[in-house]
Backbone:
């Protein structure tokens, strides 16, 4: 049976020709039952009936504000995520990025070092220096990396390009991604891209300052590092060893460089603002969800 009384919200009386559902006012769109519930609570509180519409309108307005806030945060998250993955254009590349890696025989003897309760045995292979643009890196704390943990001695794997690869914007048309220990790349058209001007680097260090800088590295950063190519093993498992590649021309699972880093610099950070906005947007999206849930829980008539 259609609601025959005046709408508790706007006082509109239904007509037989109205097409709105029986439970909804054709004029203002409110649900009769919700509006009557507000009416009853207001009367119980001793407030005048003319405050019904004002209170109902305020709650609907708050619902709109929270919804708009959520979607604004979601858009900000999406845009900042996209911006944080952009690689610098050629005119933004610092001069040192065209340098080739420097690899020389080392005089450093095997040594060991401790990291988070584990001892590691290190066998130096060559002194090494590298300049490069970070095109992708793994995330040892991410859910997709099932191999590493926060205690892994591999602080981060960074995949970089240098030299002829960054003399044109073609390198920005390549698709890059990181696995737990690997760097993948692909491109769909004929471009100037040199496979031996790219390397994936497993980074270790016994310096807290160096480790913190490496953890801060993001896609698009232009970096410089000095150290050694090394093979290493857990002291508790000396028969297992991770070996470093010693050439940039190899491919496959054993083509990665293992670098014990003594010095590490971010010469130019390309997406600092976007990365900051991405982190902030994550927290704002979570906040907007909490606010929305709180509003529903504590204001049951928030929505029509």
Residues:
């Amino acid at each position: 049976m259609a609601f025959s009384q005046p709408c508790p919200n706007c006082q509109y009386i239904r007509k037989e020709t109205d097409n709105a559902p029986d439970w909804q006012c054709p004029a203002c769109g409110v649900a009769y039952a919700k509006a009557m519930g507000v009416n009853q609570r207001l009367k119980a509180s001793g407030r005048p009936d003319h405050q019904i519409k004002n209170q109902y309108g305020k709650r609907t307005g708050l619902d709109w504000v929270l919804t708009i806030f959520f979607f604004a945060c979601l858009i900000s998250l999406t845009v900042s995520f996209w911006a944080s993955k952009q690689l610098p254009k050629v005119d933004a590349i610092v001069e040192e990025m065209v340098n080739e890696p420097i690899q020389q025989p080392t005089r450093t003897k095997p040594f060991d070092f401790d990291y988070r309760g584990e001892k590691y045995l290190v066998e130096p292979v060559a002194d090494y220096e590298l300049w490069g643009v970070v095109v992708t890196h793994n995330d040892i704390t991410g859910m997709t990396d099932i191999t590493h943990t926060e205690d892994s001695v591999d602080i981060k794997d960074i995949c970089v390009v240098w030299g002829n690869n960054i003399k044109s914007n073609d390198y920005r048309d390549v698709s890059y991604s990181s696995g737990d220990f690997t760097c993948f790349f692909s491109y769909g058209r004929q471009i100037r891209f040199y496979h031996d001007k790219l390397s994936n680097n497993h980074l270790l260090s016994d310096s807290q300052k160096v480790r913190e800088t490496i953890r801060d590295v993001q896609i698009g950063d232009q970096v410089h590092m000095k150290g050694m190519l090394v093979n290493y093993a857990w002291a508790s498992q000396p028969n297992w060893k991770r070996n470093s590649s010693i050439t940039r021309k190899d491919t496959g699972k054993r083509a990665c460089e293992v670098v014990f880093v003594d010095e590490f610099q971010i010469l130019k950070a390309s997406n600092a603002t976007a990365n900051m906005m991405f982190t902030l947007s994550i927290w704002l999206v979570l906040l907007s969800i909490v606010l929305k849930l709180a509003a529903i829980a504590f204001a049951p008539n928030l929505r029509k």
In short: Confidence is low (pLDDT under 50) at residues 50-58. The chain has four helices and nine strands.
